[in-house]
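Subject: complex prediction, re-run

Hi both,

The earlier run crashed halfway through, so I resubmitted it with identical inputs.
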Amino acid sequence: MKSASATPAYTLNHPRWYRKRVSTYWWLQRWEYLRFVLREVSSAFVAFFVVTTLAQLYALSRGPEAYAGFQQWLKNPFVIALNVVSFFFVVFHSITWFSLSARAMVVRIGGKRVPGALISSSNYAAWLVVSAVIAWFLLRG
Amino acid sequence: MEAKPSQLRLEPLLWILFSAGGVVAAFLIPMHLFLQRIAFPLGWAKAPDYATTTAFVAHPLVRLYLFVLCSVPLFHFAHRIRYTLYDGLQIKHLNEVIAVCCYGSAVFGTLVAGLLLWNIH
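This time it finished cleanly. Structure:
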């Protein structure tokens, strides 16, 4: 059963809403829109990294020759170029994600809201620490 | 409430996976990408050899870490691409197909990651 508030009587014969047709290429019209779409597209490069990581794990499970073959594939100039582009997109994702979390997270200390700049700067600090730990694990071998 | 209870339950989970994937991708992937995909292939730093890598990946905690590293970012990707296709290209009539394809590929990737990491000794 539908509630009265969902279909109020006075909207039964409402005139058609005026809605302006939005171009399919609306995201090319302003830099802010394009930046938004580029931020969303960064997730495709995240997925590309995951797929190559899965391929790496598969090669690892197949033995030393397969693993050497995978590492050789990574040296292909096109693959390196794609990974360089991926790197910039993923860093763009990190930066936008940290500034987004400053708006999304409401942290209160002593009844006062912690300013967003403090949240994003602590995110950057944590990012540095986490990256250093990853680098330590990967470089010590 | 009785309209679509299944959708109502699934949507929060998808948003949680999206933001968990966003956090994992933001904090972890840049350094992995820089070292393993740029610095090692270009010879800027020495990549760990096969024996070291297999021994390292065999550790249960490393496998769990790699599983999380592969799985949740795929849901992050699925969620963002779903809404980008929805808003960006305005193909609302394909909404269900897009959602199934996006989350389906994330589930598939998660299964592949689980299978690979389970079988590595």
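The mean pLDDT of chain B is 90.

- K.
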